[in-house]
Known about the structure:
Strand content: 25-35%
Structural class: alpha+beta
Radius of gyration: 21 Å
Number of strands: 21
Largest sheet: 8 strands, mixed
Helix content: 10-25%
Shape: globular
Order of helices and strands: EHHEHHEHHEEEEEEEEEEEHEEEHEEEE
Distance between the termini: 64 Å
Amino acid sequence: MRLRVLGLLLAATIATTVARADDAGARPAERPEKQALRLVNAYRAAAGLPPVKLDAKLSKGCMEHAAYMRANRGTDAMAGLNAHTQRPNLPGATPAGAACGKAADLFPGVSDLQVAVDGWMASLYHRRPVLTPSLARIGVGYARLPDGSLMAALMFVNDKDATPARAVMYPADRQTDVPLEFGNEVPNPIPGNGRGGYPITLQFPAFDPVTAVKATFTDGKGHKVPFYLSDPEHPATSFGQYGVICVIPKVPLAASSRYTVAIDATWNGQAGHWSTTFTTLSLRAVDAADESAIAQAVGVASRVRGTVLQGGEIDGGTVFLQIGQATGKRYKMVSVMMPPAVWREVGGGAEPSTWTGKTVEVEATPVVVGKVYANLPISVAAQVRVIAAP
């Protein structure tokens, strides 16, 4: 049975773990495909897996599929999982591109391939192929959009030779600088299309039977951490689990904190126990009025402080609090963004505009939309607090 790599990552609001750890050694002019290869191999090394090679032929097909995604952006061909299957009658369709689409992680609209790889690793379905022990070659494709962002594709080819079966747990035991949040994935394994914390996975060969899964999740003080569990017997969605057990904390993880996840499962008829203890990253302190600091913090988990200039709702679906400068040379707005349900908990029934003049501190990962809007998305009330009132 042939395993197909499907799933679409829409956005990443997480910070990097292993990827940013070696930024100092990255060349400023590093080509995107080389950057992706370096990051994939850094993640694999953290999990104790061998490096993979970049395949020029596969990459050519992935470049064609990225161009196909760009040409058909905004159409039904790019809705949901449709982007994985090329339609021969559409612009940019090619046999090599179609082959990539069927066996790749995809990211429509991402600032760069580092953010893409980090985002794939912050999910359930996209992480699995990256950490497959038998993975031997990857293809990397990208197509630039008018706003400078990229359509991205990462294709996987496993070694046909027999690879000793093994279980891979990630984050690995004693790993540090682990991110805090789950990426935005399609299909979304979190109930109610919600948000959560950085996933912990234990994966086995894709078609081996994995049963009787039980898991525990505790913080450094031994307190239980609420989580969602998705496993081969009880998958979160109709999408195939392919030998992966995934533990997703119900809220973002706390910064600079220690956690332990233990999993008991029966693999190929043999009961086993696996565990990992890891530490999350520290937050970067950022002043919302410092546009250069905001720019440097994009994609990095941060603690951002600023004074609320105005608040309101966008299309009835998102509440915003604009903080920092009213007008800036680089960004038009720096804003905290949250679902209405989160605002009701944060604001206690008050209108967002009543927070004008309050100084707040926000734990979030800055993202830039349309090159001029710096947003701080939060998913739980604990991510924002009032430091001073007017």
